[in-house]
Specification:
6-stranded mixed β-barrel; 2 domains
């Protein structure tokens, strides 16, 4: 075997390994994003008092709650923290509700706070304050007050950040609503979140972070390598007639691609919003209402303030998409090399 052929085989092998590794990374990120997509974030310009938040939580647990949603209230600000060392510009999340509704990651160590004067922090903040990630039981203080909190849990993140229970005088501006059983979500999560806000007495939010809309790109990124590789197969082998001995291979590949598309199509259609299903596409009034709806959602996103959770979702979505695209490129290159080799024989 010549050196050129060995080099080409090594490149093809590396491309195969890289393609499947990147696809595997995308499949790992998808369920993490999927868990974050099963909730919507409501933003209020007027502060929500702790009393209002408690009343809303009581309503959520009553039989009057028809939406099946459960709220967690929180407020984000920036503080200075002191441990063994000091750290400035630390993101502080004061919340009332369930910590898992905010941060879908499992804890690196420890537990979630069970009451006041307890906090769970990021590994980045632990390194800044103590130079270690083994900080369970350590005491941290806020530079703005003499209040101290015990570290009860640590989660994996490079962002200097801590989450603590809210005091009784905390004013909230964000509400994270998610399905009460944590496994299912309403078909129209956006409308359900609005209905919950109105029925619970919170009033209409100024904006809604449409996290449930992540379901569509997550599904797309998950199966993008299969779809693009199949498309490349059709483009490559559709232009030239394969050698006689390879016709059966082409027929088998065509059937496999057809079965794959038939299997994946329901997976794509299931999470699609109703306006993407071609049932009303011939109705001009439907398109006008759709355009008005999209304009309203876009205006909401312009006034929605940036939060650490929104930034985290955008970062993971970007990584998920990049891994899927690169995996598709690598597998398509391997397919092209294989087709060139088969046609040269």
């Amino acid at each position: 075997m010549s050196g050129h052929k060995r080099f080409r085989r090594c490149i093809v092998l590396l491309a195969v390994l890289a393609g499947f590794f990147l696809w595997w990374q995308s499949l790992i990120l998808s369920p993490i994003l999927q868990s974050a997509a099963g909730r919507n974030e409501l933003y209020y310009a007027e502060p929500i008092t702790a009393v209002q938040a408690e009343n809303t939580r009581e309503y959520a647990g009553s039989d009057r709650n028809d939406t099946g949603l459960w709220p967690t209230f929180w407020h984000q600000d920036t503080i200075t923290c002191d441990g063994v060392f000091s750290a400035d510009n630390v993101i502080c999340i004061r919340y009332l509700g369930e910590a898992t509704a905010l941060w879908p990651f499992s804890l690196y160590s420890g537990t979630y706070p069970a009451g006041l004067r307890q906090a769970f922090i990021s590994t980045g903040l632990a390194q800044d304050l103590w130079g270690s990630e083994d900080v369970i039981g350590c005491t941290l203080r806020s530079g703005q007050s003499d209040d101290a909190a015990k570290v009860c849990g640590v989660f994996q993140s490079t962002i200097p950040m801590l989450c603590i229970w809210a005091e009784s005088d905390t004013a909230f501006d964000h509400v994270m609503v998610c399905a009460s059983d944590r496994t299912t979500a309403p078909d129209d999560f956006y409308a359900a979140a609005q209905e919950f806000a109105l029925q619970s007495g919170l009033g209409a939010p100024l904006a809604i972070g449409w996290h449930s809309a992540l379901v569509l790109p997550i599904r797309l990124f998950c199966w993008l390598p299969v779809l693009l590789t199949g498309l490349c197969w059709l483009l490559i082998f559709g232009k030239k007639s394969p050698p006689a001995g390879h016709k059966i291979h082409r027929e088998i590949a065509g059937w496999l691609i057809a079965l794959t598309v038939a299997f994946l199509l329901p997976c794509f259609l299931a999470p699609l919003p109703s306006w993407l299903i071609p049932g009303q596409w011939s109705n001009l009034a439907f398109w006008q209402s759709l355009w008005e709806t999209l304009q309203g959602r876009w205006r909401e996103q312009l006034v929605f303030p940036g939060s650490v959770f929104l930034g985290w979702q955008k970062e993971l979505l970007w990584k998920d998409g990049l891994c899927s695209i690169m995996a598709s490129v690598c597998l398509s290159v391997v397919l092209y090399q294989s087709s060139m080799k088969s046609h040269s024989k």
